[in-house]
Amino acid sequence: xxxxxxxxxxxxxxxxxxxxxxxxxxxxxxxxxxxxxxxxxxxxxxxxxxxxxxxxxxxxxxxxxxxxxxxxxxxxxxxxxxxxxxxxxxxxxxxxxxxxxxxxxxxxxxxxxxxxxxxxxxxxxxxxxxxxxxxxxxxxxxxxxxxxxxxxxxxxxxxxxxxxxxxxxxxxxxxxxxxxxxxx
Length: 184
Known about the structure:
The protein has 184 residues and is α+β, with helices and mostly antiparallel strands. The protein has a single domain (44-182), classed as START domain (Alpha-D-Glucose-1,6-Bisphosphate, Chain A, domain 4, 2-Layer Sandwich), CATH 3.30.530.20. The protein has four helices and seven strands. Strand 4 (102-106) and strand 5 (110-115) form a beta hairpin.
């Protein structure tokens, strides 16, 4: 597990966006929903290189229509790209990351959002958070780095950690296949 290090300019830009992006339609972020805290929250990192423009990779995380094209006709997404805005992936059109929110973003480079477990896991009502960074490696090559943070302690959280470690390990290759021309 590699720690997440953001450059000072990235942090400054992210904080500026937080201050400038709050709107009346955004909801407050309830910090009481989070168990993971402190300087080293329990986390994991997944990375993948994709032979596609960075803008296309970023769109899968920030554009509801792009995400729905990836996931198919039964899926729905609600992504209001503003601090506190909705960030919901509904895999069957109804159930998924219901109630999750955008925490921050840097257009074209980074998006961070709250995340919850599937209804089958006891941690469903709690929140973790995800940071997705897209880095252009050339005109048609991108590195996507996903850091999932904030898992609590105990058997229920161990199961949630294992679930998402495996799930993101399937989602990133699916995105790669989609963007490289092997879409559904």
